[in-house]
Design goal:
InterPro entries: HAD-like_sf (IPR036412), HAD_sf (IPR023214). The chain has nine helices and eight strands. The protein is an alpha/beta fold. It folds into two domains: 134 residues, Rossmann fold (3-Layer(aba) Sandwich); 78 residues, no CATH class. It has a six-stranded parallel beta sheet with strand order 5-4-1-6-7-8. The two termini are 16 Å apart. The model has no long low-confidence stretch (mean pLDDT 96).
């Protein structure tokens, strides 16, 4: 029997939160009027993506598959420098952990820890900011491979090749909430995937879930129920 290798995204997959939006925008600029404009643009994008019939999460010709991609688009639109954007990102990450602003899905974390099959963490976040998150989630020693700064979707096929070399004769399954970065790139790389749609109720992939509770239930049923 062919065994599976589960490749987890981090943000929106191992945890989900919208509570950091105001914090990130606050760190981007001291201009209160500009902050208000940014927040309004964020609402415009998310309102568009949450429409019941929305099937492609593209805004102004830009694929924006998750909350961080939306926020980075906003920073670029309002001419925030890459240095200021990166600093705001790191400050926000630090506050999310130190302020314990992230609610941990205890059941999902327990399931991930207990899964008796190869597990890979693959995130576009750099190691500097991702490692504290993984440790905060108490998953610091629970993955067999850690791929940081993954540069999805462009580098997905290269990562799949590395995982295949380490786990030959395994079925690689990518789990993520960014349709463009995680799901389309997985299909293009010849592997299966599980999509977590946080935007609306559209079933956009053969395996589509809508929250982390459903992800936990799916993993339990498929891999742990006897």
């Amino acid at each position: 029997m062919t065994l599976d290798v589960l490749v987890f995204d981090m943000d929106g997959t191992l945890y989900y939160s919208e509570d950091f939006i105001d914090t990130y925008i606050y760190y981007l600029t001291n201009d209160e009027m500009l902050r208000a404009e940014m927040l309004e643009e964020y609402k415009n994008v998310t309102n568009e993506f949450s429409k019941p019939d929305k099937q492609k999460f593209v805004y102004n010709d830009k694929p924006l598959g998750d909350l961080w991609q939306i926020l980075f688009y906003i920073a670029e639109k309002f001419n925030i420098s890459s240095e200021a954007n990166n600093l705001a990102f790191l400050k926000t990450r630090e506050k999310m952990i130190n302020g314990k602003e992230i609610t941990i899905n205890i059941d999902l974390v327990k399931t991930v820890k207990t899964l008796n099959l190869p597990k890979v963490l693959m995130t576009n976040s750099p190691k500097e900011s991702a490692t504290p998150f993984i440790e905060y989630l108490n998953l610091g020693d629970d993955f067999d491979m850690y791929i940081y700064d993954a540069k999805k979707p462009d580098m997905m096929s290269d990562h799949v090749r590395l995982i295949t070399e380490r786990y030959p004769e395994h079925n690689i399954i990518k789990i993520g909430d960014n349709y463009h970065n995680d799901i389309s790139s997985s299909s293009n790389s010849g592997i299966d995937s599980i999509y977590i749609n946080h935007f609306n109720a559209q079933e956009l992939h053969k395996i589509t879930l809508y929250n982390l509770e459903q992800l936990n239930s799916y993993l339990l049923k498929k891999y742990m129920e006897v």
